[in-house]
Amino acid sequence: MNDRVAAGWASGYNGGMSSEGADRPKGTPLAGSQCGGVDHVLHRRRFLTGMAAAGASSVFSWNGLFSVPAFAAHAKRTAKRCILLWLCGAPSQFETWDPKPGRPTGGPFRSIPTQLPGIQFGELMPRCASIAGKLAVIRSMKTDQSEHLQGIDLLNRGAGPRPPFIRPTLGAVLSQQLGHLDNPIPNFVLLDPCPEGNEFKQFKAGNWAGWLGAEYGPVRVGGDFKLENVNRLADLTADDHEARNALRRFLTKKFENERRSAAASSQNAVFERVKGLMSCADLFDLERLPARDRERYGPAAFGMHALLARHLVENGAPFVMVANGMPWDSHVFHNEIYQMLVPELDRVLFHLVNDLEERGMLDSTLVVAMGEFGRTPWLNQARGRDHYPNAWSLMLTGCGIKRGVVVGATDVDGVDVDGQAYNEKNLFATLFTALGIDPYAPYELPDLPLFHRVEDRAEPIRGVLKDSA
Predict the structure, then answer these.
(1) Contact, 328 vs 91, CB < 8 A?
(2) Which residues pair with 394 in a beta bridge?
(3) Which pTM value belongs to this model?
């Protein structure tokens, strides 16, 4: 068994499967992509002109191509990317996307009309109700993990564990498929208010990339909304710094070649990313963004990180995950907690979606807002809602997604799905299809059993996909 496979073994938390597409060059979009329009096709003459202008830089170099201002602007506007708003702790569907007013399970909050005839959201989401025509809501998710650890793992990897193999997370797969290893901006950014990790192992230094290798793992940022420890020491000249890097590259490459070690290759790739981080550290400094933007998104970490995610994808980051700690886990005083949480989510989603649209980026940026499951239709003795994977909701918009649709339904009390239910495999098939990535491509790694991006050829949720029958 080679080192790349060994890197995906059970040194992290859970096992599983995920996918990659080895049947076509990395980063190549599929024909018939769901995302974008004519802007996705560069005119041949403009392409060749741009390549000539790139001069001595390799025509296959991300940095070489991005050194041409016209290409940089075009690529940043049309390149596919994804923002995942991870509502850790599992938000309640009843106070957000699938209210049941007047029912025993509905709680004290009312529902309000949206832009969509006959569709209601919870009354704590007036801003999202006003832009419902830009959103797609799935009300019929049904999964089989009711504990946070397992649910987070399932909904981040798209399939259950299969020890000893570690399936890469969605962010790692999209980092590989949409990113470039010489991109100075990290291909997978995890924005977390607790960057040292919360009580759940997945948000500590776990094995996010699985068998894809460490180069596709996240760069984790949080706390002060800027990158720390990226400046060169004052007494170290630029020449000395580069000389040290050159020596490190030589020695580590020699070790990699002599040992034929894919694990060493992954580590070397991670070191190279540090140099890129030093050059783009200013992008992580929210104080450089307009004060008006910071005021609109709100002072809390979730709003600030969502604003930072918008700024990063605008500047070339292909995947940004915003994790907001554990506030949605409302086992006690549910109603009081949600009077604070839901309006914040409403405000952040409203501004994020509108900002992406105003910048011409919504058609190329997939936005997902979800947690690991939903909340129970009943309140417990502590006036809280407990974990509930049997019937829950999530929101999508942007790249490849049909706007102004609500797919699926629950029964009158929200106890179970009414009609077709969808699980994590259907969801991952939807996300990959929306981004123009083949959901069923196999991984072709030595000594690894056959895995696919989406197992069992699970169907995407076609009702939310653009141009889908």
Answers:
(1) yes
(2) 138
(3) 0.80
